[in-house]
Amino acid sequence: MRKLLIALVLALSASSNLWAQLKVTFINVGQGDAIYVEFPGGKNALIDGGSSGVLVDNFLKTKGVTKIDYVALTHPHSDHYRGLKKVFTNYQVDNYYDTKAENRDAAGDNNLRELAAAEPGCKTHYPKPGEILNWDPKVTVKVFNACWQPVIMHENDETNNCSLVMRLYYNGNGVLLTGDANSDIEVDMLSHFKTGLQSNILKVGHHGSRTSTSDAFLARVRPDYAFISVGIGNKYGHPHQEALARLRNAGAKIYLTTDGTQSLTIPPPDKLTPGPGKPIIHDAVGNRLEPQSMVVDLTWDPAELGGVSSPALDQLKEQASSGPAAE
């Protein structure tokens, strides 16, 4: 009887630890972004949905998901918002997070916002830089960039720089999710936020474009692991060799969704093992993954970007001058 009780306690403890972990999955949606998060407290989030609802819908069905607590659109480009339409059609969504960036060349982003407004019980939020999102009591979710005031834009770079950038922090691990933010907004975030950007896990900006993931940004973030959501043979040539070289020079291990859906699991704090929990990187069926090994040649000078202005920069500066002191 005593052995049975001990076995039961161990089983319940193992189950509790499994529940208490943070799991972040980079769904293979081809050329686009879709990130599914399972929080220690049992809630979930979906950040972007790729360009096709079929892929993200299949993923959610396989996991047995029926409700999503938090859905976020980083910015109004079709490779991020299209898949979310099927999500609103097929699943209960309780909260929707968006920017106020209006892409004048696209109607689909507004269709998505209409679906969110029509969703029973769903609340829409427009977070500001510096805001802490109450998604899980054990995970700090902080926003570093967003166009939180209305702005109408046409240029792709302007829209990318309105990306909702946030960091999840749990058990000594930071997971920085950058949307499609470019190097100029990276520089401004470095200026505005003196601390808090350091993250051992980085979702690389703009699918590994040369115009993101600058040396200065990497020097502050200091990623050990870098995930790039990208499609095989995409017309943009992502990921660019220059971005890969900078990541490798920074010492990051690189993972690409061209190898399929990839997840990282951060274990709960363990009193017997002090210090940050070590992330476990695995594929959709639980096999541990090794980083990509690739030879790259640096052919592009980051200084070519020069000084760029954008609505996101203006709003971040306004927030800095009117809001609380940067952290």
Topology:
Blueprint: H1 2-19, E1 22-26, E2 35-38, E3 44-47, H2 53-62, E4 67-72, H3 78-90, E5 92-97, E6 101-103, H4 108-118, E7 123-125, E8 132-136, E9 139-145, E10 151-153, H5 156-160, E11 165-170, E12 173-177, H6 183-192, E13 201-203, H7 215-221, E14 225-228, H8 241-249, E15 253-256, E16 262-266, E17 280-283, H9 311-322
Parallel strand pairs: 3-4, 4-5, 5-7, 6-10, 12-13, 13-14, 14-15
Antiparallel strand pairs: 1-2, 1-16, 2-3, 8-9, 9-11, 11-12, 16-17
Helix pairs in contact: 2-3, 3-4, 6-9
Describe this structure in words.
The protein is of the alpha/beta class. It has a single domain (22-322), classed as Ribonuclease Z/Hydroxyacylglutathione hydrolase-like (Metallo-beta-lactamase, Chain A, 4-Layer Sandwich), CATH 3.60.15.10. 29% of the residues lie in helices and 24% in strands. It is built from 9 helices and 17 strands. 46% of the residues are buried.
